[in-house]
Model the fold of this input.
Amino acid sequence: MRVGLYPGTFDPITIGHIDIIRRASALVDKLVIGVAINRDKGPMFTLEERVEMIEAECAKLSVETGTEIVAHPFENLLINCAHDVGAQIIVRGLRAVADFEYEFQMVGMNRALDSSVETVFLMAEARHQAVASKLVKEIARLDGDVSKFVTPLVNERLKERLGK
Done:
């Protein structure tokens, strides 16, 4: 069984993330969405809320693609998380050249830790290249319409969180 790991903070999950998840599902039999517990980033949503949103959005995708998709919180090294879930592939989404530079360094470090785990880069669809969770949160905080960037469920959660 080919197992892939798509890690991130997903604070919140966006349509760009969902696009990468859909496309990564075609590459593996099981896709684990690694939800990073990153206290330094000060997420807007709790870990439990992020996992719940991911599970809700991915339940539909799992049926649509025929690929098992599960959320898995983690706080250890990415390569150790890959071992924990039995992943042979780490999936990373790229939006721009700046993403590639950071990801290139990460791949090098992960390969030095365990060269048996491959990293696969998926370029964001052109229409999703500007979508970033950080920007979505900022637009929502400033009363902007984020419905083009997130699903209706996530849009509602953002409004609730911001008291709108």
Notes: The chain has one domain: 3-127. Residues 47-65 form the longest helix (19 residues). The helical segments are 15-25, 47-65, 78-85, 97-113, 133-141, 152-161.
